[in-house]
Design goal:
Elements: E1 6-8, E2 15-24, H1 25-28, E3 38-49, E4 54-68, E5 75-90, E6 102-105, E7 111-113, H2 115-123, H3 140-151, H4 169-179
Parallel strand pairs: 5-6
Antiparallel strand pairs: 1-7, 2-3, 3-4, 4-5
Helix pairs in contact: 3-4
Bound molecules: zinc ion (ZN).
Zinc ion binds at residues 69, 71-72, 74, 131-132, 138.
């Protein structure tokens, strides 16, 4: 948990407050699906309490995330420069996070964890497909290893790896490359 991103809704003074923090990969690796290998992201969260129950958030993220290239699986650094604004209103008893620009939180909440919002702001900025700009920029050793592995049909030692069923064959190739 990032303490700085936990907004104290009830006790926040009126007006605008800037919160700054730095995020690394541990912030993004909350589940096994995460592809973020490294992260170096500065976040500025500007919170304006506009009234007793209404707030405005402006999130600015700047930095770099490192994810695997789709083609060669080697590290790919992606610059992150994202800005996201969100209004928050406290009312009723139900959380409603279906709106793009308005988040409704129950009126008895004392705190709001903005970490998931910040996390999504960065992760949604990562394009669906992400490769090194051209194949020439890819790691040639990785590409060779992947090629030869994929061309080699079923490897002889497959039995010894039967516990890793369901693994992407490219990852198997990578693992071999690292063992050499
Ligand atoms: Zn690549």
């Amino acid at each position: 948990m990032v303490e700085a991103l936990m907004l104290k809704l009830k006790t926040l003074p009126f007006g605008t407050h800037a919160i700054e923090c730095h995020l690394d990969e541990s912030f993004f690796n909350i589940d096994e699906l995460s592809e973020v290998r490294r992260a170096d992201v500065d976040v500025t969260l500007e919170v304006t309490r506009k009234s007793e129950n209404t707030y405005h958030l402006e999130i600015n993220c700047n930095g770099t995330v490192t994810i695997p290239c789709d083609r060669c699986l080697d590290d790919l650094d992606l610059p992150v420069e994202e800005n996201y604004c969100l209004n928050v209103e406290q009312m009723g008893t139900e959380l409603d996070d279906t709106g793009d620009e308005l988040l409704i939180v129950p009126s008895d909440w004392r705190e709001l964890d903005t970490a998931p919002i910040v996390r999504d702001t960065v992760l949604l900025a990562i394009p669906m497909t992400h490769c090194h700009e051209s194949e020439d920029d890819c790691n040639p050793d990785m590409l060779d290893a992947l090629d030869s592995h994929l061309a080699g049909a079923v490897p002889d030692d497959d039995d010894t790896q039967s516990e890793t069923t369901g693994t992407d064959p490219r990852w198997e190739a990578l693992k071999k490359l690292k063992e050499q």
